[in-house]
């Protein structure tokens, strides 16, 4: 069955962006970049990958899920279909993406993900943000954290607050880069 993979950059104190969506503190230079870009080439916006000459040699994902706030980050720059090499699904109860190749839905994310998992295909990338990830926590099969050696102090959490109910994941791989970025992969404990 297809896995739902939450692959995301996070600060040491568990934030995926600053309070106003800032992400410039995450390091975009260093030895982690080539390794991560090669392995997770699917997660680079289509136009950026083309500009950088990055090829998807071993596709991992064929679909991406975004909360509206995550999708909306590109809109002021005119980017309305950021990952057009993937099937793009955006969750919103009130808005609609204009791009033809972006599906907007107000369906319950859990029901939609369960249906997607039953369809044939590659893994599904949960891009974020924290609000959508919180709704989908119970469906996440694999968690891939790109942890940067930075403390934000405040911001948008990896998972928006929800009821206290610990869910265990087992660490399956960790790579520490000279840049200080640590890539850790976890699978849901069985
Ligand atoms: N560090 C990283 O790798 C990374 C990755 C992704 C995102 N981010 C950052 O995360 C921030 C956004 O995160 P966020 O937590 O604020 O928001 P988000 O999860 O991206 O989006 C929240 C919105 O999605 C819709 N939504 C969420 N859950 C839903 C549900 N169960 N059913 C229907 N619609 C639902 C709602 O939109 P409506 O209000 O329109 O109904 C909600 O307001 C951005 O700043 C982005 O840059 C960082």
From TrEMBL:
GO biological process, alphabetically ordered:
riboflavin biosynthetic process
Out of the domains of life, which is the source?
Answer: Bacteria
Q: Where does the Bacterial bifunctional deaminase-reductase C-terminal domain start and stop, copy by copy?
A: 4-183
- One family name in Pfam for this protein: RibD_C
| InterPro entries, A to Z | DHFR-like_dom_sf, RibDG_C, Riboflavin_Biosynth_HTPR
Q: Which GO terms describe its molecular function?
A: 5-amino-6-(5-phosphoribosylamino)uracil reductase activity
Gene3D superfamilies from the xrefs? Dihydrofolate Reductase, subunit A (3.40.430.10)
Query: Which PANTHER family does the entry link to?
Result: 2,5-DIAMINO-6-RIBOSYLAMINO-4(3H)-PYRIMIDINONE 5'-PHOSPHATE REDUCTASE, DIHYDROFOLATE REDUCTASE FAMILY PROTEIN (AFU_ORTHOLOGUE AFUA_8G06820)
Kindly provide the name given to this protein in its UniProt entry: Bacterial bifunctional deaminase-reductase C-terminal domain-containing protein
Q: Which organism is it from?
A: Microbacterium oxydans
Q: What is the lineage of its organism?
A: Bacteria, Bacillati, Actinomycetota, Actinomycetes, Micrococcales
